[in-house]
Amino acid sequence: MADHTYSVSEIVGTSSEGVDAAIKNGIAAANQTLRNLDWFEVKEIRGHLADGAVADWQVTIKLGFRLER
């Protein structure tokens, strides 16, 4: 990663299956429109409740993508 410059964006991935799936869903969606994705950081985990039970997981993800020269 030497001598690279990155831009950083935050997204929220969601899944009813769990945190790991929410991360993968968010990154997969971002990968459709952003090039040069190099790293991610999980910033926040929260959930949506329905009838007193976990219905969905929501994960805020910071994404770093390398700027082209």
Parts with pLDDT < 50 across at least 5 consecutive residues = none
Structural shape: elongated
Alpha carbon gap, first and last residue:
14 Å
- H/E element order: EHEE
DSSP helical segment count? 1
Overall mean pLDDT: 95
Query: What is the count of β-strands?
Result: 3
Helix content: 10-25%
Largest beta-sheet characterization: 3 strands, antiparallel
Tell me the β content.
Answer: over 45%
Q: Strands of the largest sheet, in order across it?
A: 1-3-2
Features:
55% strand, elongated, 1 helix, alpha+beta, 19% helix, 69 residues, three-stranded antiparallel β-sheet
Explain the overall architecture:
InterPro entries: Dodecin, Dodecin-like, Dodecin-like_sf, Dodecin_bact. It comes from Arthrobacter cavernae. Pfam families: Dodecin. There is one protein chain. With 69 residues, the protein is of the alpha+beta class. The chain has one helix spanning 19-31, and strands at residues 6-15, 37-50, 53-66. The protein has a three-stranded antiparallel sheet. Strand 2 and strand 3 form a beta hairpin.
